[in-house]
Amino acid sequence: MKVVTFGELMLRLEPAGYYRFVQVDTMTSTFGGAEANVAVSLANYGMNSVYVTKLPAHEIGQSAVNSLRRYGVCTDYIVRGGSRLGIYYNERGASQRGSKCIYDRAHSSIAEAVPEDFDWKAIFKDCSWFHLTGVTPALGGNLPDICLEACKTAKEMGATVSCDLNYRSKLWTKQQAREVMTKICQYVDVCIANEEDAKDVFGIEAKDNDAAGGHLNKEGYFSVAKQLVESIGFKKVAITLRTSINANQNKWAGLFYDGKDFYFSKEYEMMIVDRLGGGDSFTAGLIYSILSGKDSQGCLDFAVAASCLKHSIEGDFNMVSAEEVEKLVAGNATGRIQR
What we know:
Blueprint: E1 2-6, E2 10-14, E3 28-32, H1 34-44, E4 48-52, E5 54-55, H2 59-69, E6 79-80, E7 87-91, E8 100-104, H3 120-123, E9 127-133, H4 135-138, H5 143-156, E10 160-164, H6 174-184, E11 190-193, H7 197-202, H8 220-232, E12 236-244, E13 249-257, E14 262-264, E15 268-271, H9 278-291, H10 296-310, H11 322-329
Helix pairs in contact: 1-9, 9-10, 10-11
């Protein structure tokens, strides 16, 4: 099945290990971005994964394209133009010191895209699913209108549309997010969010909850999911639930509301190698399992297990197979060596 994702692919620069920005003279470079992370996961699961963006035509832009091609992502609809690739700098946290991301993405090629760059009817031909996140319209310019047009066209052509709310306070205000995402989400079937997104974007929150303090009232998110369906019009809602003990240790779970019933996953205790892309790997797992015909509990279990494994992988991309995820779902969680 063909799945299309649309967003910004960025250059990721970071100090090795747990060094701080001010300590280093060199940084490692990789590529990543919310929707691109989803596209790579889906390609690894064997799906026809298509990624759409705009990248500069120079060698760094080509390196970004190549980072997707090596995993089997279709890059045929990537537009080339503009002068720069967005960058983000990542400093990994440890113990009680949190990770830190610094964005340098103003005037990137995708941020300066125009509606004429994308032929959505051609892109969505034979498409089963379209996915985007709240990060992309948050970049401003023409992107709110471009994302809205993409969602409209995808729906008209029979695709299921999903959106990860993915609120980023460094990109826009809560009021801006609510105004734009309310318009976009009228065309969205499946909403994905973390513990705080629904509150930040739509003002819907779980009672007796303190995500920043490490206390989650998990049952309270049933009400959040139901309110999102009733007030916004989503058909299904999935929410990731992260309990942070410290930067290295998290508990990870999720819930899924399919419009009729609520489902909870098991909770994993994780020692984190790299947490970036964790939500994106959850999204990819959910899309894959829904399209594969799993029942609601099976969809949630696969998505949570996939994202649990991502936390053990360096970089934005989740380098695991569907078989490895299924093994974790089945209970193989001890991390024993495979010979």
